[in-house]
Amino acid sequence: MGLAPELGSRYPHELSGGQRQRVGIARALAPKPDLLVADEPVSSLDVTVRGQILALLADLRQRLGLTLVLIAHDLAAVEQLADRVAVMYLGRIVEISGSGELFRRPLHPYTASLLSAVPVPDPRRRRDRIVLAGEPPSPLAPPPGCPFHPRCPIARPRCAAERPPLATTAEKDTRLGECGRMVACFYPGEMLDGRVRNGEDPSSMRRGA
């Protein structure tokens, strides 16, 4: 874990946040599991320690042959660690894809809106934000049809009437071999065609066929 042996006699309050996180990972790995579930492993850490923990998890996964299930809101951490990504909205998976393909070309409108909010570490580059209207509905009373349709800029009448299944698309994924990408949307990829980002009135798209 990269911890000095003399730290073994210390109490938790005598360790830093990063050290405590390493101890937690060590406890999880002590039974030699094949699967490690990491739920927000870097959410409470500063940027420097966060990078160290992510690098540690990546090294452990490779060195020990672990399957790592990472649960995170930090999309940069997901991009750094994950081979395959599942995006959830209102408790349901809306897109499954290899990491590289998902970050390069998101198919679900919700995925596209999430990625548009990630800061770009280059002042010369500008990322067009996709700002969603309204608030997420309650999981206890989801809307009819597609759960995302009340906030979706490309929603159409069909979206309010039918729930799209999580289905394999025609697009292949280089990381997944012959497996296609999966998305729960009747109009996958349309958020990337520029109509919403360039200022077209979303209501005109909702009226479209």
What does this structure look like?
This protein has 209 residues and is of the alpha+beta class. Strand 5 (167-172) and strand 6 (180-183) form a beta hairpin. It has seven helices and six strands.
Q: How would you sum up this structure in a few lines?
A:
By secondary structure, the protein is an alpha+beta fold.
Helices and strands in order:
Layout: H1 17-29, E1 35-39, H2 47-64, E2 67-71, H3 75-81, E3 84-89, E4 92-98, H4 99-104, H5 109-116, H6 157-161, E5 167-172, E6 180-183, H7 202-206
Parallel strand pairs: 1-2
Antiparallel strand pairs: 3-4, 4-6, 5-6
Number of strands: 6
Strand arrangement, major sheet:
3-4-6-5
Order of helices and strands: HEHEHEEHHHEEH
Residues in helix, %:
25-40%
- Note poorly predicted spans: 195-209
Number of helices, counting only DSSP H or I runs of 4 residues or more? 7
**Strand-residue fraction?**
15-25%
**Gap from first CA to last CA:** 56 Å
Q: What is the C-alpha radius of gyration, as a whole number of Å? A: 20 Å
Q: Main beta sheet, described?
A: 4 strands, antiparallel
General form: elongated
Mean pLDDT: 84
Helix and strand composition category: alpha+beta
